[in-house]
Structures
1.
Amino acid sequence: MDRYTIFYDDESEFSGPPEDAPAHGVQVVMEYHENGTRTIHQGVDYYCWLGDGWASGMAKDLDRWLSARPVRPLVVLLGRWAPHTLYRKVADKAIAADCKDCP
């Protein structure tokens, strides 16, 4: 499994098991892949754990997405609107961050 870090609107970070992640206030989920690339999920309503990575999207699509995904444990984290200056600060921190615990 690739590594990831979740960045929140209180400027905290989380990199543990998805089911232990705080559910509210997500601003960015940064995935770090074994090949050295990254995927950034940001600025959306929800972030869902797929079992081997993250998907993200808008609230209007969440029910359709959940009904098509049998992944357990079901982990859905919620984004939250933040003032632009705070969002930019968190997003810039996420983009500049190196992967913790990556080889």
2.
Amino acid sequence: MKRWEREIAHLREISELRFRLDDKARELQASEYNRRLEGLNHEAAQLKSMQERYIPRDTYGAEVGNLVKETGIMRVSFANLTGRIFAIASIISLAVSAVFLAVASHFIK
């Protein structure tokens, strides 16, 4: 075998080895990508689960604001009704006192 044929054979072996190593590197890279993708899919599933369980901060803030307004309205209404009850109780007390005085004055004479 001539020298240049040996060099060509040697270069061919080196090229084949390089192609095999490139193929092996691509297989390893693909398996690493799959491993990382599985991890990302797991994280995505966890994030989706969290989004299903929790409400966004904006929604929470809006709802709390609505509750604060409604609570204020309820406090005003409660105070109004309490005042009305005291007024009605005072009127009833005054009426009972007037009836008592009228009946008592009838028996005292």
3.
Amino acid sequence: MPRDGAIDAVEEHVMAGWDVTLADFHQLIGYPGYRSEIAPFFEKWFDYTIEGSRADTVIRSRQGDAIDLTELHRRIQSSPEQQYELYQTAQSLWR
């Protein structure tokens, strides 16, 4: 039976080992000290900006729409390249 591309993507995601948890994702985008390292990814990948800090953090599209953070996290985690880049940056910030 032919494989579904979505199944392959899920398996690749699980196998990659570069997961950033949702809680860690919130920390990365919410902590002001990480902003200069993290914000450029969202601008480059999605044309999004980060506003606020800590519990008041919001990611917005250029049109001003608030982006669902859980869905954004899922999108990043489903992209091996983005997942890897975010993970590596997080690890360097947490050292």
4.
Amino acid sequence: MEWLSTQAPKCEDCKLTTIKGEPWSEARCENCRVDLLEENQDAGKVYIMCRNQVITAGMGEVVDLNLQTVKTVMDLYNIKDQRECMEKVTKTFRHYLSKRRDEQN
């Protein structure tokens, strides 16, 4: 799910595409892109839509994901098992946030 922001910068084809200002194309990324399992498709879609909708504190420190935004997106996409989807989305975000904090320290 974080492929575009975490893996794309490491892929030479993606770097060249970005540097040249060309639009991103899924076809170029067959070497580095990871496909989600079917049971994670909904959570992946919701996460990508919501990952930048965060709650901040103090000097802009990211505290958590805005869960109201997650709920709204799940409603818009008619996600059936919203509890499971919410758990996957928040778990993924908190994992990413933890890795980001580790890299900053």
